[in-house]
Design goal:
The chain is mainly β and about 375 residues long. The chain is built from three helices and 13 strands, in the order E-E-E-H-E-E-E-H-E-E-E-E-E-H-E-E. It is about 10% helix and about 45% strand. The longest helix has 30 residues. It starts with a strand and ends with a strand. Bound molecules: zinc ion (2 copies).
């Protein structure tokens, strides 16, 4: 990684006589003899173009001793008295003879960009729209929440109205089940003999497993088993060194010359390769087990009676349970209410239990509490 250093000579344009591309080694215009000054374009040197990839100057480097000596003389200074450019190692102005004073102007230095080693990755194109969307989203969210907050406050405010019970209705049912002997099948390893016990007053029963018989081999499911190995290859990429590339930096010496340092930097490339591995192959294998028939007991519905009615106490159907029977009761109630709120409104209460249902009577006065958004809050007797 040896470094290569070159000195590149800049050029300037005379503003007194319009001479172009005067070599930096000349502090005076070779055409009109006017000195280079800090004013106008004369203070800026042109160092020519550089190669965009490497940053290497397209100009030839200077090698003659005279130019190299000028380049090494330090930064130019501009005479405070006459404005002429002078070599950094001179104590008097070559143009007017004035001494180099504290208020002599220093040469302006050009800053050169170091060429990037890698072109910067393009920014994800979505970034901007997404952040815009995000703000839009937040704005909508804010407006919507704030707005719905106000709406919510209004909507939750309540008003009371008077009304009455226009009727009540009920629907009740009794289901009777019997602990009944049944024949079932099950896997032999899950069946162990258990004595059945009959329910007493509809509970405490044990279904039991008895008379396990007629067992046959049957497929119960599958399991995965290893079935050798296979070579599996996947295409992958990796970064590898692939030669070198030249990168150059330039430094303004402040006297019309730049120092250029170039070096060779390792370049990296993407390389495709096959990543191969031995992987276990699997197959599904059936699993067999013995399935048997056995005797047990199960609750089975033997009877069901329903009754419906209005405006009064529910009349439960009566079923006589046998020794191994049990009963389930189900009930549905409705209380119809009418009230005035910008016209006649109707609503239905659904009491869960008979006791609650019986507290409502047809013709009874009620107070209905309703929110502004029309939701029924509560109904109490008047
Ligand atoms: Zn000139
Ligand atoms: Zn001077």
């Amino acid at each position: 990684m040896a470094k290569r250093t070159r000195i590149i000579e800049g050029t300037w344009n005379c503003t007194s006589c319009d001479a172009k591309d005067i070599l930096a080694r000349h502090k005076r215009c070779p055409n009109c003899n006017n000195p280079r000054e800090l004013t106008g374009d004369e203070s800026d040197f042109d160092f020519g173009d550089v190669d965009a990839e490497s940053g290497k100057s397209l100009r030839e480097g200077v090698t003659d001793d005279k130019a190299l000596e000028i380049a090494g003389a330090g930064e130019d200074w501009f005479c405070a008295f006459c404005g002429a450019a002078n070599r950094g190692d001179q104590l008097r102005c070559k143009h007017c003879g004035a001494e180099r004073s504290a208020d002599a102007k220093a040469a302006p230095l050009q800053a050169f960009e170091t060429p990037a080693r890698k072109p910067p990755a393009p920014p994800p194109p979505e970034t901007k729209p997404r952040s815009l969307k995000k703000w839009l989203f937040l704005g909508v969210l804010f407006t919507c929440c704030f707005g719905s907050g106000l709406y919510g406050m209004w909507a939750r405010a309540t008003h009371d109205f008077t009304g009455e019970v226009t009727g009540t209705s009920w629907k009740v049912a009794v289901t009777q089940e019997r602990f009944t002997p049944v024949r079932k099948t099950g896997w032999a390893d899950q069946l162990s003999r258990v004595s059945a016990r009959m329910p007493v007053n509809g509970s405490g029963e044990v279904a039991g497993v008895d008379n396990v018989r007629d067992c046959v081999e049957r497929q119960r499911g599958t399991r995965k088993v290893a079935d050798g190995t296979e070579r599996v290859c996947r295409s992958k990429t990796r970064r590898v060194a692939c030669g070198t590339e030249e990168k150059c930096r330039r430094r303004d010496k402040g006297n019309g010359f730049v120092e250029e340092v170039c070096e060779d930097i390792t370049r990296y490339c993407n390389e495709s390769y096959e990543d191969c591995q031995n992987e276990t192959r699997y197959r599904n294998e059936p699993v067999y087990a013995r399935e048997c028939t056995y005797d047990t007991y199960e609750w089975k519905q033997v009877d069901r009676r329903e009754a419906t009615g209005q405006d009064g106490k529910p009349a439960w159907p009566s079923l006589q349970p046998g020794a191994t029977d049990r009963q389930h009761r189900s009930e549905e109630y409705a209380v119809h209410i009418r009230y005035e709120d910008d016209g006649v409104k109707e609503t239905v209460l659904v009491p869960k239990a008979e006791r609650d249902f019986l507290s409502w009577k047809k013709g009874q006065g009620v107070i209905v509490t309703v929110t502004n958004s029309g939701d029924l809050k509560k109904v109490v007797p008047r």
